[in-house]
C-alpha cells in the first residue's frame, strides 16, 4: 500500500507536531530526514479552510510503520 492510498487521520486527532509537519502523521515519530508527503487532510470549520498538509516517516510511507498493524 502506498502512502497516498492510506487513510489519513482526522485533523482533530493530530498532535501539534503532526499538524505542523514535524511528526509522522501515523506513528507520531518526529521526522528528521526522508520525510514523505502523506497528503492533505481536507476539513472546513464554517468559513475557515483547515486543509493541512501532513508528512510521514519513510517506514509508514512504505506501509511498514508502527501504525500499519492497526
Ligand atoms: Zn511513521
TrEMBL record:
This is Uncharacterized protein.
